[in-house]
Design brief:
Length: 680
């Protein structure tokens, strides 16, 4: 059940939006099994042989985990761009050292983020949490067992101690989920209580449900099992990426799992255990560890291997491929590793070999990172050589001397330097910031050189506004502007809640309130001290708003845009809407160009599909106001009936929906020209 929930969630997130709770189910199972094993050893011998315990864990888990991580990395070197290899190499090192969860927490990665460039080992975060649990749990049990032995009711003391640990972790999970959900999802302290829940069942060692002296309790066991399944299924079906998780809501699948385990293996015929005990399900359970390891790299790598986004048949192929690889890994790696790897070897020798294997994989990853770094530096030099020339990026569309404006990009990969999010040396925190939650959302870029008559300019929007910094800040430097920047990803700047983003419903009221608070605060600042110019841009073609009227999106945007912007222009501010850029349709991406180095046209899209109407730009045009303008650069992406992935030797896009910084730089002359034209 645990592995199926996760696999289905990763393949069909709309079908099972909360399938990530499978990880929580697994944590409870792991806590139960390990605690049962360790307490059994403590009761038999009065001690835990830590060396043997860790050696068994290494033999059981490491061979398959290291193999899958390494093979996935090697396949990635063939099919993924250089910049992805560097990040995957780093995360593979973190996963090999079982620190992936802390690595992701440090990056504040949203596991369900729509734009997340996931690595092939991102799912190893749960294995990292588990291994860290294995490190501390035996030591905790030894200490508690030692203290419990001196008391009149040792089992009661053991249960109380484990409950106290679980309660502390649960409270911390609720707290951290409230203040930093992405971090809370990954860090170990927020998950300890889930292991402790399973540990409590093992420590209780109760036969209440299965004692034959109480025949009626067999029916109670069946009810408990069905209740557990319903709780797990409900959380998998109802929860989604907006659910504040783990927090207190994680108790739903955890309690469900605890009920199933505590009810024991005996059950009436009408119990769900009847289905779970059939041979196909048992086989799937036997390969579940390897299936968990393989399914994620298959999902990440398969689109690049087959050179297209995954459709339904491809997703079924991914399932089949994952199951086959899991079966082979179980038979030839997992089982031999557990039973025939270094037979008769001492724990010290097994752990020594483990360290050597870990060092080997880490060294391979480090070497790949170095090689990829050299390749990235070479790409940067090629871009520098091309920069400024007549055929640089968008300039090639106007220069007659450029023979192949849609040929392969000069740089084979796209590095982090092409990201649209960057900081200029003349930009810094605003002295009076806009604060939303724990974020300060105001930056001041002062290019005025102390001039009192310097024009004041604002750049407002989401990450699609941020990509235009590469054009606006150079113009600001040239014109000695004072630029104030306020950006919040995924948030419209109109005073209406966002209801959907890229087809996914926005149901989290906290997210909606955060966006509304930011947009209102920005508007208040603009009204309080009207700037000369405001640039606005957003991913309005990829999001939906809801003003409660049920009207078509174009009409809702027209009203919301007018209500937001007209008060600004009434105070003398000129407003410039930068029409949103074409969609990549998951095709005009760096990954596609890496797969089609000699035929970049294979990554192009029809203009009719890639350039839908921008409701904000349409709303601005409909107002037909003299101080509201639209800057439309669509013809620099789609100069004919096609929108291109490579133009003038450059990658047009940095990822699946943001324009690469170098391409925006190549647009500066056109941007300046059109800004001047609509301003005159």
């Amino acid at each position: 059940m645990a592995v199926l929930l996760v696999v289905v969630n990763h393949l069909w997130p709309d079908l099972l939006s909360g399938g990530y709770v499978g990880v929580d189910v697994f944590f409870v199972i792991s806590g139960y099994l390990i605690t049962q094993h360790l307490l059994g050893e403590l009761k038999r011998t009065g001690r835990i042989r830590l060396g043997q315990f860790y050696a068994r864990r290494a033999r059981r888990l490491l061979p398959a985990a290291l193999l899958v991580a390494l093979l996935s990395l090697l396949v990635a070197t063939v099919y993924l761009p250089t910049d992805r290899l560097i990040s995957i190499g780093r995360e593979t090192i973190a996963s090999t050292l079982y620190l992936e969860n802390w690595s992701l927490a440090a990056q504040s990665v949203d596991y369900s983020a729509l734009n997340n460039q996931a690595s092939t080992v991102q799912h190893y975060w749960s294995l990292s949490v588990e291994e860290q649990f294995y490190l501390i749990w035996p030591l905790l049990l030894i200490g508690v067992y030692s203290l419990a032995g001196r008391r009149r009711s040792p089992q009661t003391f053991m249960l109380a101690a484990l409950a106290a640990v679980g309660a502390a972790s649960f409270a911390f999970s609720i707290h951290l989920t409230h203040i930093s959900r992405s971090e809370a999802y990954f860090v170990t302290p927020t998950r300890v209580w889930e292991f402790a829940a399973g540990g409590l069942i093992a420590a209780a060692a109760s036969t209440w449900f299965t004692d034959e002296r109480y025949s009626g309790r067999l029916r109670v066991a069946g009810v408990a099992q069905w209740t557990g399944v319903v709780l797990i299924a409900a959380s998998a079906l109802v929860f989604d990426e907006s659910t504040p998780f783990p927090g207190y809501l994680a108790a739903v699948p955890v309690v469900g799992t605890a009920l199933i385990i505590a009810s024991g293996p005996r059950s009436p015929l009408w119990s769900p255990n009847t289905v779970l005990s059939v041979t196909p399900v048992q086989i799937l359970g036997n390969i579940s560890y390897s299936l968990y390891l393989w399914h994620w790299p298959v999902i990440i790598l398969l689109p690049s291997i087959i050179d297209r986004p995954l459709d339904t048949s491809d997703l079924l192929l991914a399932v089949l491929l994952s199951v086959v690889l899991a079966g082979l890994t179980k038979k030839y790696i997992e089982d031999p590793g557990r039973s025939r790897f270094l037979p008769g070897a001492s724990p010290r020798r097994i752990l020594g070999v483990t360290v050597a294997a870990t060092v080997t994989v880490t060294t391979i990853c480090a070497a790949l990172i170095v090689v990829a770094g050299f390749a990235q530096a070479a790409d940067a030099r090629r871009l520098d050589a091309l920069s400024g020339g007549d055929c640089f990026g968008a300039k090639s569309l106007s220069a007659a001397v450029c023979e192949q404006p849609f040929g392969p990009p000069a740089a084979t990969g796209i590095g982090a330097g092409e990201a649209p999010w960057f900081t200029d040396e003349q930009c810094g925190p605003h002295p009076d910031p806009i604060v939303v939650g724990d974020e300060k959302l105001l930056t001041l870029c002062d290019f005025s050189d102390g001039r009192e008559d310097a024009e004041t300019v604002w750049l407002i929007g989401d990450s699609h506004a941020e990509q235009w910094k590469a054009a606006i800040l150079p113009l600001a430097r040239e014109n000695h502007w004072k630029v104030t920047v306020s950006l919040l990803g995924g948030c419209p700047y109109v005073d209406v809640k966002r209801s959907a983003f890229m087809g996914a419903e926005t149901t989290d009221s906290r997210v909606q309130q955060r966006c509304l608070q930011w947009s209102r605060s920005v508007s208040d600042r603009v009204l309080a001290a009207p700037p000369d110019v405001v640039f606005l841009s957003s991913f309005s073609a990829g999001e939906e708003i809801d003003d409660g009227t049920g009207r078509p999106q174009a009409e809702q945007y027209r009203t919301a845009f007018s209500d937001r912007v007209v008060p600004w222009t009434a105070r003398g501010t000129e407003v410039y809407i930068i029409r949103d850029t074409p969609l990549t349709l998951d095709r005009s991406t760096p990954e596609c160009l890496a797969r089609n180095e000699e035929s970049p046209l294979a990554c192009a899209n029809p203009k009719t599909q890639a350039l839908p109407a921008d409701p904000v730009a349409e709303a601005a045009r409909a107002l037909d106001a003299p101080d509201i303008h639209v800057i439309d650069l669509s013809d620099r992406f789609c100069p004919d009936d096609t929108c291109y992935a490579a133009i003038g030797g450059l990658h047009v896009y940095f990822d699946r929906d943001h324009v690469a910084r170098s391409y925006v730089r190549s647009l500066i002359p056109t941007f300046a020209e059109r800004f001047a034209a609509v301003a005159s």
